[in-house]
Design brief:
Blueprint (H helix, E strand, L loop, with lengths): L1 E6 L7 H13 L3 E7 L4 E3 L2 E6 L6 H20 L3 E4 L5 H9 L3 E6 L3 H5 L8 H18 L5 E4 L2 H4 L7 E3 L23 E5 L8 H7 L7 E5 L5 H9 L4 E3 L8 H7 L2 E4 L14 H7 L4 E4 L2 H7 L3 E4 L4 H13 L1 H17 L3 H16 L2
Helix pairs in contact: 1-14, 2-3, 7-12, 10-13
């Protein structure tokens, strides 16, 4: 059975797509190919990675050329039995693949209509609402033609009525803490780490502002910066802040393990309020206490695993960072709780059973 995961947006080393899903299926004995826009073709961890050029230009040009025309050409050459796609831009491509007799799985990483409401390149709120509503209708009607739906969060699954739908949460592949490398970086003070893509809407500016008040601690930032103003601010140097750039997914734990507290203070955008971001679970896998945005969904989900702050209030963030560091008993007990939860529940080994289940349902049907 030949499987092709396809993406025109994500990088070929995407943690969910490659390291979790593709490698898991390859280990199950499937013939797995990852078709991706950008990068170089290669074979890695028994997965055949086929790349093709990403078109440079406007968003519409990228969607029409990279996500539709070029992707279809590569998919036809690969001639897989099952196509598993990861971007809403690929819905039309995947409908075509269904039309020519292929089985198709739609992997929905986020609440796309809610995400549209937060897009900075759409200036008008009214236009955002119209586009969001139209896409919601389009997406819900399109999924009826696909063989299975995989979502990253329970709230996304609730949006759809499909006979074969699973929630596949972004729990981490647990590291062996005894084998984690001691990275060669200078740790001058107790540290708080943020890992992930950095944008204004993810609360990075407020987080940096918080460390203006925290001379006894330092903030570690790890991940890509996609906004010019924010990139300029960080690269010029911020008080009590260190930026370590971008590393491979398997190297992230080296940095988290050396830090003292994990933090994620996303701003209250529509797509954030019920998201299950990957990073809290990676912090927990390293036994780190956490500080998170005070969203009701996050408080209900993570409970005593975190302290919760107003992500729009840098002073509140700073005060709670100081409070957690000063309460040594809470710092230790929260870290121990989080590590145990990752062992018992929040890990990819257990979550991957759902992925294997959906593939068995399709291949045996």
């Amino acid at each position: 059975m030949k499987i092709a995961h396809i993406t025109s947006v994500h990088p070929q080393n995407d943690n969910r797509i490659f390291y979790k899903e593709c490698v898991t299926l390859a280990n199950e004995g499937y013939d797995v190919t990852l078709i991706v826009a950008g990068g170089e073709s290669r074979v890695l961890d028994c997965v055949n990675i086929i790349s093709y050029p990403r078109v440079v230009g406007g968003r519409l040009k990228r969607i029409l050329k990279t996500s539709l025309v070029d992707m279809i050409k590569v998919c036809k050459k690969v001639d897989a039995d099952i196509y598993h796609f990861h971007d809403p831009e690929l819905i039309f491509t995947s409908l075509y693949l269904k039309l020519i007799g292929k089985k198709v799985i739609y992997d929905i990483h986020e609440n796309n209509p809610a995400s549209i409401l937060s897009k900075p390149y759409i200036k008008s709120k009214k236009i955002k609402k119209v586009i969001s509503k139209l896409f919601d209708i389009f997406e819900k009607n399109s999924v009826r033609f696909f063989d299975a739906i995989v979502t990253a969060r329970p709230d996304i699954s609730k949006r759809f009525n499909h006979k074969n739908i699973i929630t596949l949460r972004n729990f981490p592949i647990l590291p062996n803490l005894s084998e984690i490398k001691d990275i060669d970086i200078k740790k001058e003070k107790p540290s708080v780490i943020f890992v992930g893509g950095m944008t204004n809407i993810r609360g990075i500016n407020e987080l940096i502002d918080a460390f203006e008040y925290l001379d006894e601690y330092e903030l570690w930032l790890l991940g890509p910066i996609t906004e010019t103003k924010l990139k300029d601010r960080i690269e010029k140097g911020c008080k009590n802040v260190k930026y370590f750039g971008v590393v491979e997914a398997y190297e992230v734990f080296n940095y988290i393990n050396k830090a003292d507290i994990g933090i994620i203070t996303f701003l209250p955008a529509p797509n954030h309020l019920e998201t299950l971001a990957t990073k809290p679970f990676e912090y927990m896998a390293c036994g780190k206490p956490m500080i998170m945005s005070n969203f009701s969904y996050w408080q209900d989900t993570f409970k005593d695993s975190s302290i919760y702050v107003n992500p729009l209030d840098s002073q509140d963030i700073a005060e709670n960072i100081k409070y957690l560091f000063e309460d040594k008993d809470l710092l230790k007990s929260m870290g121990n709780l989080n590590y145990q939860l990752s062992i018992d529940e929040y890990n990819w080994e257990k979550e991957s059973l759902n992925l294997k289940k959906v593939y068995k349902s399709i291949t045996s049907g």
